[in-house]
Amino acid sequence: MSITPAGHVARSAVRPDAETIRRTPMRTFLTTDDGVTIDAVYDPPAAVYDVSAPPAVDLAFVMAHGFTGDVDKPHVRRVVEAFARYGAVVSFSFRGHGASGGRSTVGDKEVLDLAAAVRWARELGHTRVATVGFSMGGSVVLRHAALYGQQAGGDARTDAVVSVSAPARWYYRGTAPMRKLHWMVTRPEGRLVGRYGFRTRIVNRDWDPVPLSPVEAVPAIAPTPLLIVHGDQDGYFPVDHPRMLAAAAGDHGELWIEGGMGHAEHAASDDLLARIGEWTARRAG
Question: What's the average pLDDT block by block, 10 residues per block, for the chain (285 residues)?
């Protein structure tokens, strides 16, 4: 795949200290290891909070959205605002989404986008960085944690992983929403719908080679803390997916099956986001 970089990459030297808590969000373009420009936003910890439990200035969440999302979508911003109660938040648009360059590879090369965002969080001075992904982003955070482990991952490593509504295996077509998604990804007319209906530009070729699947990646995540979250009413991926992931994690991972929850960011309640924020603040680093 050949992708031409576009745009200018800006780096910030601002550090997330007491002064930074009161700053407005910062926006820039990051460059991935394969030369794709990624639209990214930094939100400092929330300026208004309970002084008895302030957000952790050293902690940054890196939020990976689902397929067809981007940093400006309201459901993405809602998650960012929820996590900002517990630490800073880096959000970004995956390649092919929103203002980012390149084309979506639907979970393959996106690990490079996440790695660039994690490095930026560390460049901003955060010593603890956790990745939280939803749906496609949930599969990406699992694969990223396996590929950028604690020993070899350098500044792109993560200190905790939360995967919400993720598939366990590739090519799943067992539900109507997933059959529609596969039509969008694999058919020329579907990719037109993705481009003009969802601002998502999708690569027009199959994976070669097929990337490591989420369930294959999970055993390599240890000892990094891992949380798997899934709704029992998920219309995309039934609960055998999170159970496969949890089985692959063994005693290392935690599994939350949420009663009445549907799929990904849209279905995540304020209470669930708060519990994820609290879990991450305790377990990261």
Answer: 33 44 76 98 76 76 97 96 96 97 97 97 94 98 92 85 97 96 95 94 94 96 96 97 97 96 97 97 91
